Amino acid sequence: MKIKTKCQECGGHNLRWQSTVVNNSDVQQGRLRTHEMGVLFFLGCDDCSATVQHATGDQIARHMNDAAPFAEVAEVDARESARYRLLRRGQHWSVIDGKGDVLRGDELDATIDARLAAQAAAKGSGDA
Ligand SMILES: [Zn+2]
Question: Which residue in 8, 44, 89, 91 has the most C-beta neighbors within 10 A?
Fold first, then answer.
């Protein structure tokens, strides 16, 4: 399920999910049993009140299950990025290249970028 990020009516991005209980049967109000009830999520535009998107509870659950592994990857990436930012400052630890030169900051970034580019080129040519 692709979640919309823009209102089709006004072009706004001020969108918010809401939920409501719905009757999934023809049973009249007051005689309903819980299995005849469901949940409906709808994405509304806070700027113009348009309903931008709606989804059943099952669709939302499937979407969240599909997104869970990506959230975990993003969390690991964020932690590793924070570690690298601390390392590249060169205040607590040193990164020394093959010639014994200390690398930090932009020089460390450039060295790593060059290495990654070389690896990508080797992989692309099938030499990896
Ligand atoms: Zn709108």
Answer: 44
